[in-house]
Design goal:
367 residues, Rossmann fold, 3 domains, 6-stranded parallel sheet, 12 helices, 15 strands, 21% strand, globular
Amino acid sequence: MRNGSANIVLKTLSEMIERLEDGARLPTVRDLMKKHQVSQATVQEALDHLKSEGLLVSQVGRGTYVTRGGAARAGESSRETGLDSLLILSNASMNERCALVQNYIVEEMSRQDAKVVQISYHHTDHLLEILNSIPDFDAVVLQSHYESIPIRLLHLLQQKAKALVVDGHTVSGVDIDRIGTDWEDALEMALRQLVDLGHRSFGLVSINTMAQPILAARRAFGRHAAIERGRFSFHPPIVLERVQHPSHSVLDAVADTLEPLLSEDGRLPFTALLTLGISDTLGVTQGLQRLGIDWPNDLSVVVLGHRDVPSEHLGVMTIAGSSQRKAAEKLVETIRRRIEQPQLSPQIVYLHCDQVVRGSTAQPKQL
């Protein structure tokens, strides 16, 4: 039976969950203890109750997240599809989007009594050593968005599992199922909205990576500069040289990289800026503030990212891109398809892109 303090914490958390989006992260246990002046055991009791009701899911070292997945559908038992064990691999510097995808998959598999093992790695050689020492799995999900994957790793994973699906498009020239976002589609969507608002000059800032999806979007932006010459102005793509992964802080890099572009009156050479491959949207806004640039009054900002990842849109940024929830669902669907029909050709699944317009975009000021 819960004590009075646990009931108060439970009521507060229940109300918070009602307001939050699916996949949103809760405050830490320590923060909740401090806010309610209660013990860790009291907070944990309230969290455990909400987890038992299927409203929360926790990942060791990552936090506790809101989940609205509901019960597993009849006829989709993992044991009926031969999916009893799943291995999820991710780079140690993964961003919140990757963590949310993992949370969904773990929750989905746990409902069906499937064993899930998650491994986060820094170096491929170390990962290969670990993989050689653990049993085989029915399926493997390899999360890879902005780093290259050695062929020897893919070869080993294909030997250890009946199904291998890559969460990302960085793999090319190999027969492996892949799930990813067409960032060129998101770019076109964002540019259309900005043009409709009256913008005629555009900038694009991205992380420093050779990942194909990012390179393709940067090239597409460059093509617009050649095609639209005279009608619109496209500044050459801006690369944050010191930022090589979405999870890295960008505050200093944004401020230092954009400062040389400022005119004498403190203006950038474009009225709209798109960010690509950057998860630290707060860092982007803080970097602009350091330069004295206020959005949307001085500059409209659009994030090319994931619509349902709170840290990317902050509840205030216009965002164009895919959904982490749909990515997770497609990963599970593709795994089952591969196990049930191993003879089918590998597929590349492009996630649907959409746009959510918020307060970071507006009509440009008259220059």
